[in-house]
């Protein structure tokens, strides 16, 4: 099973949009997903601050700023 990770922060409208797309696509494909707050992890903050929201699939960067549901679905094999 693949895992999608959303890296974002509270109060980010793009993160809210990404969360909804990720949740829906993961439900459709059976993939797991998790969310990490960039403010709680100095390494993530340094690496991704200017790109949030960032989407990872199995730990590899997949997208940033906006999540394309079709592209994510394909990456998850759906």
UniProtKB/TrEMBL annotation:
Organism: Streptomyces alkaliterrae
A Pfam family hit: Glrx-like
Residue stretches in coiled coil: none
Bilayer-crossing regions: none
Protein name, entry field: Glutaredoxin family protein
SUPFAM superfamilies xref list: Thioredoxin-like
């Amino acid at each position: 099973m693949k895992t999608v990770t959303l890296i974002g922060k509270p109060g980010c409208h793009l993160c809210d949009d990404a969360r909804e797309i990720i949740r829906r696509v993961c439900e459709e494909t059976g993939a797991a997903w998790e969310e990490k707050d960039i403010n709680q992890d100095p390494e993530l903050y340094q690496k991704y601050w200017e790109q949030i929201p960032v989407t990872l699939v199995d730990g590899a960067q997949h997208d940033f700023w906006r999540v394309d549901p079709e592209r994510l679905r394909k990456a998850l094999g759906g």
